[in-house]
Structures are given as C-alpha cells and as structure tokens.
Write the structure tokens for this entry.
Amino acid sequence: PTVAGLAERVDALRAASTAVLPTIAALAPQESYAVSAAQRRLWLLHKLDPSSTAYHVPALLPLDAALTREALEGALAAVAARHETLRTVFFEDDDGQLRQRVEPAVAVAVAERVIGSEAELRRHVLAFTTRAFDLRDGALFRGELLRTWDGRLLLAWCMHEIIADGSSGMLLEREVMALLEQGAGGGAALPALAIQYRDFAAWQNGLISAQAEHPSRGYWHQQLQGELPRVQLPFDFPLSATTPT
C-alpha cells in the first residue's frame, strides 16, 4: 500500500460512514454536574501542586483612560451572568468523583491601583497573575485596573484554565470590551446562551461512554491480548548492550 492509496481508503470510509454526532442538549438545572475530561485532568494537576501557576490564563488589556471602575465591574458582572463557567467551583463528592457546581452569582470587585514605573508594572502584573486560585471556592477569575505613570489605563486579568482556556478566554475578553464600548454594563446587549460548558461536559461524557461500548474496542482487546510479539526492525548499525547517556 502507498500513502496515497491509504488516504483514498480513509476518504472512502469517511464518505460511507453513517455515524452522526449527537447534538449538545441543555441540561435541566441540578445541584452539581459532571466535569469534562480536561477539567478532570486540570483538577488532578492542581491537587498535585496547588501552588502551581502553569494553568493560569493571564492578559493585560489596554482600556480607555476615561473608563470608571464601576463600568468595568458592571461589564464583568454581565459576562459572568451570561457564562456559567465564570460562576463555577469544583468539589469531590462522597464517592471521590469530581463535580462542578454553578453558583447563582459571583461577586465582581475590581481593585484600582496607580503604577509609577515600568519596573513596578512588571512586578505587580507578575504577582497578580501568579497568585493561586482556590478551585473549591472561586471565583476563578480576577481583574484589576492599573493607572500608569504615563496616562494609560490597563486591565490586568487572570483566569484558571479549568474554567476557560486561551481561546475561550479571548471570547470572554471580546464580550467585556463590547459591553464597555456600548456602555451596557447591565447585560442587555448580550443574548442568553443556548448551552453552557456543563452541557458540553455531559455531551462529552456520553460520547466517551458510547465509545467504551463500541464493537471496535472489543476487537482490539481481542487482537492485543496476551504477550505482544517483539518488533524486529533492521538497524543501521548494531546496538550496544547499554543505553548511552
């Protein structure tokens, strides 16, 4: 077989496939919800090292210097009201299973600070974005207004990746900016979302469960059971008995 031939075969199988992914359905309100595979992984990593900042998603955004702290807090509150993930905290149930709970509201309080130099700006932003989050007790995002020595107004922003990654974080930032430009801190300019991240998590878990029961899984379990044969591949030169360091 050639690479081109294999590619043609794959295309043919795809065209013949009748598999259709189910749509993501909105769940009825519950006290808590299952988490996604990514959230489960991030929770485990956080438990291994709660002080780690490797999964913080920081940003430093320029704002109109005339913006008030109250206007920013209103825009952030509107976005948090629209996106449940910004109001989500995590816990392990009695069986040790990770769950997520959506709080009805989250307090949005933005501090304001005057920055006197570039060096101070760097130090402060580093300290702000590396401060640990408590995944059990949210909020898992924070913002701070920085008025600089040269007349700029900056928003220091940080989230934990368990609620939003870099791509979704940019979408949230765009919504905040759009509200600020429209002067709509009350959320009227933002339509309600048809689904939330908790709905995606349930959908993903359903797919994983379905794949676990797929006939191909049993086939490969049968094919790969027992001791696997050693792969005998030719080498350019004889291998030594020890591995070089």
Notes: The chain is about 40% helix and 15% strand. The longest helix spans residues 166-182.
